[in-house]
Write a structure and sequence with these properties.
four-stranded parallel beta sheet; 11 helices; binds N-carbamoyl-L-aspartate; single chain; five-stranded parallel beta sheet; 359 residues; alpha/beta; 12 strands
């Protein structure tokens, strides 16, 4: 069963086709109003969400389908100790497709291996958030007219910001992309993005701490919230929370033709005074998320109907190492097999297949 767990599950051709579908939905919404008649989407949200859950639900409703689900773990059987795999099997009896958000890294992957319907990762801990990336790609394409030859600045919490990880993975596969990674030294991108993506594919990137210095060269500025809920020590959050604030003054340093993105919610990292700047694209980005989720639901349901099965690639699986990442799904579901893969032969680095942390 084809699911979307990582943005790397989709080829560049598939990403481009999803963008084309989304643009067609925007141009001809009437053609899509009954495409998912009698189909059901389950939204399984174990973590807070406004945009992602509601845009998934709006997407399915606009396709003529219906939605069911829960928006907090305490109202699901997780509160009674049900495993993610069991929940996924149950949901497969009631819905045709499901979107799952979970605080544990790797949980949607576990669900996808147990389910008999397509599962979509709607954000897993500080790991990945592929459907936010779909929204980001459509936004960059519509605002800038292209997805290649861009200097993209990512600013804020690059360590725990799952949207950043998925966006780097996606954009690294387009031509002429150059990243400027703007963060405090404590919140730099994690190894699974740095080594598995940027270094491995020789993608040009620089790491800086000053947003002002980076500003003039950027075609896209992707601002992010410091992810308070992922910090082990609240004192670290307090120290870092005001690291970057984009103001109208700072926008005078930017190119005339550029765009500012933010997955939202924002706290204080973008002043509301920036909202009226024509380059501020974050509310349009939230709307684009709905169109891309419509395109994705259509694609995955069609593939499921066509009986397209994606066999799990178990090549290189190694079963004798234990993941120590406290945020990994394996830490709470002890019956899950511990599995890792050799991701860097020269350095002898193995990574957990669920959370991608080093083991
Ligand atoms: C993001 C998330 O949940 O990771 N929000 C979203 O889905 N639009 C970003 C965030 O919470 O900061």
């Amino acid at each position: 069963m084809r699911s979307l767990i990582s943005i790397l599950d989709l080829s560049v051709e598939e990403l481009d086709a999803l963008i084309a579908t989304a643009k067609d939905i925007i141009a001809h919404p009437d053609n899509y109003r009954e495409k998912c008649k009698y189909k059901k989407l389950a939204t399984l949200f174990y973590e807070p969400s406004t945009r992602t859950r509601l845009s998934f639900e709006a997407a399915m409703l606009e396709l003529g389908g219906s939605v069911l689900g829960f928006s907090e773990a305490s109202s699901s059987s997780a509160a009674k100790g049900e495993s993610v795999a069991d929940t996924a099997k149950m949901i497969s009896c009631y819905a045709d497709i499901a979107a799952m958000r979970h605080p544990r890294e790797g949980a949607p992957y576990v669900a996808s291996t147990a389910a008999t319907i397509p599962f979509i990762n709607a954000g897993d801990g500080g790991h990945n958030h592929p459907t936010q990336t779909l929204a980001d790609l459509l936004t960059i394409s519509r605002e800038m007219g292209r997805l290649n030859n861009l200097t993209i600045g990512l600013c804020g919490d690059l360590k725990y910001g799952r949207t950043v990880h998925s966006l780097i993975e996606a954009m690294s596969r387009y031509e002429g992309i150059n990243f400027v990674l703007i963060s405090p030294k404590e919140l730099k991108i994690p190894g699974f993005v740095r080594y598995n993506v940027l270094e491995k594919h020789n993608i040009p990137y620089t790491e800086v701490t000053s947003l002002d210095d980076a500003m003039p060269q950027l075609d896209v500025l992707y601002m992010t919230r410091i992810q308070r809920e992922r910090f082990d020590d609240p004192a670290d959050y307090e120290r870092l929370k005001d690291s970057y604030i984009l103001t109208a003054d700072k926008m005078t340093l930017a190119k005339e033709k550029m765009c500012v993105l933010h997955p939202l919610p924002r706290v204080n990292e973008i002043s509301v005074k920036v909202d009226n700047d024509p380059r501020a694209a974050y509310f349009r980005q939230a709307l684009n998320g709905k169109f891309m989720r419509m395109a994705l639901i259509l694609k995955l349901l069609k593939e499921a109907e066509d009986g397209k099965k994606e066999a799990i690639d178990t090549e290189g699986f190694i079963y004798d190492r234990v993941c120590r990442n406290p945020k990994c799904i394996t830490q709470v579901e002890q019956e899950l097999p511990q599995i890792c893969k050799l991701t860097d032969r020269a350095a002898g680095i193995h990574r957990c297949i669920y959370c991608e942390q080093k083991v």
